[in-house]
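Subject: complex prediction, re-run

Hi both,

The earlier run crashed halfway through, so I resubmitted it with identical inputs.
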Amino acid sequence: MAFISSGYNPDKPMENRITDIGPRKYDEFYPEVIKKNKGKWSHHEILEPGVLVHVAESGDEIYTVRVGGARLMSTTHINEICEIADKHCDGHLRFTTRNNIEFMVDSKDKVEPLKNDLKSRKFAGGSFKFPIGGTGAGVTNIVHTQGWIHCHTPATDASGTVKATMDELFADFQDQRLPAQLRVSMACCLNMCGAVHCSDIAILGYHRKPPMIDHEYLDKLCEIPLAVSACPTAAIKPAKVTLEDGTEVKSVDVKNERCMFCGNCYTMCPSLPLADTEGDGIVLMAGGKVSNRISDPKFSKVVVAFLPNEMPRWPSMTDAIHKMVNAYSNGANKYERLGDWADRIGWEKFFEVCELDFTHHLIDDFRQQAYMSWRQSTQFKF
Amino acid sequence: MATVEMNGTSFEVDEDGFLLDYKSFTNDWVEYVRQQEGIDELNDEHWKVVNVLQDYYEKNGIAPMVRVLSKLTKYKLKHIYELFPSGPGKGACKMAGLPKPTGCV
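This time it finished cleanly. Structure:
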């Protein structure tokens, strides 16, 4: 395509350069009712899954319809979201911290037409464009990462696993039958971008093979001390290597029995790639939360050590998640998050009711604090 | 990998325009990066940053942290940005022939 200039002059890059202006201020985009009643809300109610009403001290009401979003979306899709907002909400809308979309209207009689419009929209393949839900004690959107769409360190895909999981849990997105809200998150490597370390159920990409070392290019492309210090288990040490043509180059040596395949060294050094078709897969974690409602925030714990990448629908992953959600909804008391429930019944019972295998991989062996995760008590159930 | 040419010398570079091999650095490379980065004229201050980066890299095998670079050159970060509009990583390290910065950048 022919080049079309925006007015930027590459010969004088610093001329007319605007910088440090920050984001637009949020209140420029407030709907009228929000602007008028900011800081003066009296109470709110969930009318049905996906529909909320907030009542202000003045008596003003705002109805919010929350719909799921795929997070990764085209401008065509965003234009359609804008078209809906123009039609029903005076051009206003917002995105939530879990990447759902919220349309807000100021009176009750505007809710039904908006809902009917949203429900009527589907992609050619049949998926709902704007499924209503994600409120209360259900499953809302999955916080996820880039995967094979864009990142260079993933061990699994993000959008694919998330679509497969959300299809499995779709009934719970549109319902509020669970004991408490269930947050599912996904990260495609253990950098854990997002919320996997603090979610009720977490999907995590995982490698099982040590990095390959490209001796020829390593010293040219990498700052060797950074690769050495990137390793949490000190499996990497600097080394001199003789190449096939006889030249001696600086490189690194990886002690494979100390390597736990975190991939940090690849992040720092492009000559240490470790992605592998059969080796890579998924770890499931469970029991984390961020709120301090009743119990303190918790980290999620590893409950399934490895599941293979099964593109494009990841059946064994969705099956394990399904088993956990089922056991949780049957077993937990009202208001109990998944982690609270597992702590109450004991993790040995958690594995029993979820029908998950307990393997030696789940026993913490990382440094001193691993000791604290072992059972120093005679309190256990057979 | 792409090859670029400056004053008759050719350099192997990656897709971001970083030199593939530190050892192939010459003054022609500095001239090439100067044009790429939109720097009008190289002065002593540019050269001081480049020299400090190269000395540090040869001695330690890594690029210095920004605070270390500031301390060694006595230039505040703001001034480094005035010298190299793309910043110490994409601008100065590229000009000095150092490897491309890695990590979550």
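The first helix of chain A runs from residue 32 to 37.

- K.
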